[in-house]
């Protein structure tokens, strides 16, 4: 066994070459022999394995939807979630500066290390071994995803829901801007007049505020009875005016 027995147990894989795992866990701030080459390899292996898993699991969705779902599953935040489940932060080898700044909690470092581990397993035992590890780690995610919505932003989802119910698209307008020019906050309203829904949200850019407002509007729609289509036009079964809190999203412009 290596010095990372608990990590290997969580992965369901024991390394033959312990040095490979050690390198996969080594950030560039710690040593010149760091994990970036392994990360490069692991990223490619991960994308292929996840693509294969999705291709076999979801037989009726097209290439565009498969690409969108894969992108959501292999993005930094998804990888960081898996890394946290594995308690990967306890095993990272970081330089003194990264340790002091909390680098062991940084999503980018966790995600990169996980990809490096996948690359290391590929070198250590080949494709079948790493495919099994990735499939096992992604099993909980795959069991609960909806391929029709995963990876879509809130504005897109809101548009699709409204169109599906026969309503006009929502209207967005900037209510106010706050702060200095280099650090502004935008307050944006998302309105669906036919349903008497009007919600507002704030963000560090207009796009961020619109996305946050759309999220609130989607929540508001759940309180409205779906309309029945009649004569080519849909009418709300019940008009509901909802008072929702202002959401604040920080995002670079």
Identify the notable features of this structure and list them briefly.
disordered C terminus, alpha+beta, four-stranded mixed β-sheet, 10 helices, about 250 residues, 2 domains, Ribonuclease iii, N-terminal Endonuclease Domain, Chain A
CATH architecture name of the largest domain: Orthogonal Bundle
How many angstroms separate the termini? 48 Å
CATH topology of the largest domain: Ribonuclease iii, N-terminal Endonuclease Domain, Chain A
How much strand? 5-15%
Tally the helices.
Answer: 10
Look at the structure and name the CATH superfamily of the largest domain: Ribonuclease III domain
Number of strands: 6
The helix/strand order is: HHHHHHHHHEEEHEEE
Averaged pLDDT, please? 86
Would you summarize the structure shown here?
Helix content is 50%, strand content 12%. The protein is α+β, with helices and mostly antiparallel strands.
């Amino acid at each position: 066994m290596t010095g990372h027995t608990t990590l290997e147990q969580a992965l369901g894989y024991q390394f033959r070459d312990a040095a490979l795992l050690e390198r996969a866990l080594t950030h560039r701030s710690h040593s010149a022999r760091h994990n970036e080459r392994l990360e490069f390899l692991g990223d490619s292996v991960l994308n292929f394995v996840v693509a294969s898993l999705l291709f076999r699991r979801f037989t009726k969705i097209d290439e565009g939807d498969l690409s969108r779902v894969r992108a959501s599953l292999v993005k930094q935040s998804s990888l960081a979630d898996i890394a946290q489940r594995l308690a990967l932060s306890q095993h990272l080898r970081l330089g003194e500066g990264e340790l002091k700044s909390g680098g062991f909690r940084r999503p980018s470092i966790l995600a990169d290390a996980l990809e490096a581990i996948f690359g290391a397993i590929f070198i250590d035992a080949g494709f079948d071994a790493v495919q099994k590890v990735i499939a096992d780690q992604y099993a909980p995610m795959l069991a609960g995803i909806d391929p029709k919505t995963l990876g879509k932003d809130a504005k897109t989802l809101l548009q699709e829901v409204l169109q599906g119910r026969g309503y006009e698209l929502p209207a967005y307008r900037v209510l106010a801007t706050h702060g200095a020019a280099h650090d502004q906050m935008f307050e944006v309203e998302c309105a669906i007049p036919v349903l008497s829904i009007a919600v507002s949200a704030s963000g560090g850019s207009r796009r961020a505020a619109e996305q946050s407002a759309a999220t609130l509007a989607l929540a508001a729609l759940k309180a409205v009875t779906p309309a029945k289509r009649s004569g080519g036009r849909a009418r709300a079964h019940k008009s509901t005016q909802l008072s929702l809190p202002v959401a604040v999203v920080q995002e670079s412009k």
